[in-house]
Amino acid sequence: MPSMLAIRALWVLNLFISSSIAFPSLDPIVPRAAASQPYEAPGPGDARAPCPALNTLANHGCINHNGSDIARQSIIDAFQAQFGIEESAIDLALVNAFVVCEYVTGADCGTTLKNLTILAEPHAFEHDHSFSREDYMMSYLPDGAAFTDNQNFNASIFQSSLDVLGGSTHVNYKQMNQIRLQREALSLNNTVPGWFVESKPIQEFEAGFIFAVMGDFNLPKYNVTPKIRVEWWNYWFTNESFPYELGWHPPTVPRGSDFVLSASSEVLAARVKSTPAPLVSGAVGTADAPGTLNEAVATTTYQIPTFEPYAAAGVGGADKRDVSTSTEATATAVPVINPYMQTLAPSDIAAQQAYATSVMSVLSSMSA
């Protein structure tokens, strides 16, 4: 296996080449016209993120379709116009996305995100036990593979999320919490020993976002206890496109951080029917504070995947996209940063990655 320094050097070269809480009442829903820009699948040279929302905006040309050199303000404008999400819900996440950009490129990115692929840098903005992506390190990797595809949509991973619903047409808070725990258990069961870092606060913010944009406005208690319409969620994640043809449209009044965080809190507090295994300590229940990794570690940077975008893979299917290191010592207390709610620094990324590296190394030596 090539050294981490060699792997990272190859990636950098490729990068620059290819580059029940009641919610506020809403005004009466007025269906919007379909997105002004039609869907266009990403090509082999286009960059995409481990984020269905950003990829959807790029696929429709609401931000640069090639996924590169994206102005910060264009992302803010696109989220509000296309998803009905106001700046307050994504502002800190955007700040931290640019921190990841600086970490990966080694330079201040200003107000222009170099490309979407940067966000696949592991244990930074990207996180383990995603609803629809593989973790960066999985135990089932082919021999000699350095990492898996944590960047692109994975139909099997997402199906494992939907399987929890047992055919339900909608997702409530309790079911979403059950999905979260199921994904965490499956991820932990298939991880490379030592790599897994629980990212409950991050995933729950994402769950709140899904309730905000895919909540079924046809239901009578939509403004009080929203439920996600499964066919809309499935269409959105699978195609990374707006499900207008299924009757969806964004909320007439944009959702802000208050809505997203309220829904997130409700999900965490919801009692589940059963607890899957294995789970790390503290996985069940409310925990607003970030976790702490109490280990002395050394920093190692990782290459991030540059797999072709999902649509560019050339595998047949029915959906729109054609197919479903330098080292330095760190402090002993390593905080797990939630990039949606806490300020991230390059040193935080280095520390979080270093923690996983050190634990993997220890466990590997013990099993040798």
From TrEMBL:
The keyword Iron applies. Residues 35-269 form the Heme haloperoxidase family profile domain. Its cofactor is heme b. PROSITE patterns: HEME_HALOPEROXIDASE (PS51405). GO terms for molecular function: metal ion binding; peroxidase activity. Pfam families: Peroxidase_2 (PF01328). Residues 1-22 form the signal peptide. InterPro entries: Chloroperoxidase (IPR000028), Chloroperoxidase-like_sf (IPR036851). Keywords: Heme, Iron, Metal-binding, Oxidoreductase, Peroxidase, Signal. Belongs to the chloroperoxidase family. PANTHER family: PEROXIDASE STCC (PTHR33577:SF9), STERIGMATOCYSTIN BIOSYNTHESIS PEROXIDASE STCC-RELATED (PTHR33577). This is Heme haloperoxidase family profile domain-containing protein. The lineage of its organism: Eukaryota, Fungi, Dikarya, Ascomycota, Pezizomycotina.
